[in-house]
Amino acid sequence: MKKGTIILLSIVGFFVIILISMISTYNGIVSAEANVNQKFEDIQAQYQRRFDLIPQLVATVQMNAANEKDILTKVTQYRAGITDAKNAGDIEKMEPVAQDIRTALNFQMEAYPTLQSPAAFRDLQAQLEGTENRIAKARTDFNSAVKDYNIRIKRFPNNMFNAFFGFEPKVGFTITNAAAENPVDVRSEFKKGEE
DSSP label at 169? Predict the structure, then answer.
């Protein structure tokens, strides 16, 4: 083989290695950037979940509590009527109230096998906590992806290609003081349901 051919093949080989390195670098950074974008979308999805879920949970708890409150009010009325009864006629007058209680209880038991307002409130609390944990996890994952991306674009030889490819550092998720001081106001959700 001629010396000129060897030199030419060496130069071509060198440029092929550089080209492969550039393609690999570019693809790695693009993948890291796509991961950052996906993690940001995950945060948005968790906030949307919170936005959709909390009013539904509060409405369910309110409905359950309202049904139980109606039943307990009727039971209290019935008990007071029976206690105050002076004769059989007074007791007989309480029969429609007793019938209302039975109907309400049957409906409640069919829909909900046990009276469950306390359990519903506990479930609401657990769902709220779970939602906030999901949001915190999504934020942590996003910040980790941003960190990995930023490290990748600053490393050698990647940093040499950034100007050519236009990759910019990303900013992680930071919580504002307003967000930290104003968590989801579940009380306002309960007030909305009462209106």
Answer: -
- Cα 42 to Cα 7, 28, 52, 126, 138: the distances in Å are 52, 21, 15, 21, 6
3-state secondary structure of 157: coil
Contact 69, 194 (CB under 8 A): no
Q: Is residue 98 part of a domain?
A: yes
Residue 72 lies inside a defined structural domain of this protein: yes
Domains: count for the chain: 1
- Determine the Cα–Cα distance for residues 13 and 147; give it in Å rounded to an integer: 34
Report residue 182's pLDDT band, with 50, 70 and 90 as the boundaries: low
Are the beta carbons of 151 and 180 closer than 8 angstroms?
A: no
DSSP for residue 12: H
Residue 6 lies in a domain: no
With a threshold of 0.85, does the pTM exceed it? Answer: no
Domain range for 171 is 40-194
What is the C-alpha separation between 36 and 65, in angstroms, rounded?
A: 43
In a domain, 32, yes or no: no
At residue 181 the predicted structure's pLDDT band, cuts being 50, 70 and 90, is very low
Residues 6+ apart with CB under 8 A from 189: 54, 55, 58
Confidence at residue 56, expressed as pLDDT on a 0 to 100 scale: 75
Express each pLDDT in 38-93 by its tens digit.
Answer: 988 888 888 787 777 777 777 777 776 666 666 666 666 666 666 666 665 665 66
